[in-house]
Amino acid sequence: MLPELTELLNQYNNQTNQIFNVNAHLHTPYSFSAFKDIPEIFTLAEEQDIKVLGINDFYSTDGYEEFNILAKKHKIYPMFNIEFIGISTKDKEKGLRLNDPANPGRAYLSGKGLSYPPKLDESYQKIVNKIKEEITNRVSSMTSKVNDILSNINSDIRISIEEILEKYAVDLVRERHLAKAIRIKVFEKYPSLKERTEFFTKLYSGVEPLVNLEDVAACENEIRNNLLKSGKPAFVEENSKAFLDVGLIKEIILNAGGIPTYPLLADNPKGEYTAFEKDKETLLKELKLRNISSVEFIPNRNDLNRLKEYAQFFWENNILVTFGTEHNSPDMIPLKVETRGHIDLDDDLKELSFNGACVVAAHQYLVSQGKDGFVKESGERNGDSLQPFVEIGRAVISKSFE
Fold this sequence. Notes:
Elements: H1 5-12, E1 21-26, H2 38-47, E2 50-58, H3 64-74, E3 77-87, H4 89-94, E4 106-112, H5 122-152, H6 161-167, H7 175-189, H8 193-203, H9 216-228, E5 244-245, H10 246-255, E6 259-263, H11 280-289, E7 294-297, H12 304-316, E8 320-323, E9 338-339, E10 343-344, H13 347-368, H14 387-400
Parallel strand pairs: 1-2, 2-3, 3-5, 6-7, 7-8
Antiparallel strand pairs: 3-4, 4-6, 9-10
Helix pairs in contact: 1-14, 2-3, 7-9, 13-14
């Protein structure tokens, strides 16, 4: 619906440059989310003065239509993204930890700026559907184990995968949905804090809950840690079939019109990095070898100064950089991007964040016009510089607010 490129840029040249707040990575209830629904995201975005939002669900584009409709209604620019968890056999054999500090070879990979309406060849769609099926089957097996535990402590509470799908999930059922279902069932049956404490103590084999049971997010996290994690009574090993090769994930993202993006974990609270990420110069070379031209950060994990060092380094080396919050847990943290300790991005990082969103906006626009975007469908870069895409993206985003 936007004008041809020359006209678009001419219209924008008459306007002043503005830097807008961006959140480029948000999970919705179509995977798992802190938000009860997508409209809540846009209500909060208006309250927190965010003008660019990126939906970023696991394995799913099903939320795109609703997200797009609400973006138009609220005059917020939408980014259409996706996320996968894959495996690099080569890195696993080396024992190399990428952006999953607990599992060598395992890698999270996002796709930024997918085509809208969504498009994906049938062969790739079947692969994605199979992955979602494997994930749901695992949670179903965990649900059976939870029901056995409930039976063993003489509780009449029962959980079903069908009820989870009906009440708490939209499409994909994940471990967090099971924890949520358990918490809700217990809270419904036991209204008092004393009753809940007694029940969870029995559920946890005599170990009293350590969290404040009035804190819903903390309670659900503790349920996962005590019942569903590795070594716990309802844990089920993940099927290797649920993890695609990272090369195949890149193919899927490119086929869907997107930009393969490496989510950079960066520093933890102790200032530690994974082996893959600890040296930014080496990481840059490795990403280029793997034909990845885009990275993203979830800054609430990171120290402001360390984030700035890494983010500016990659941007100055013409790697696309974006920031988001995920909201992929029950915790309702601010929608506005912050660094560790609730410290705001400084002006340099706010500008970098917006410029990164502009590159994605330019990519979405160009691909919708039948042109090559920031990356071609082959995966090759379209030019060496970010700046032309920043300029196009600023015009696209500005036009979308009219």
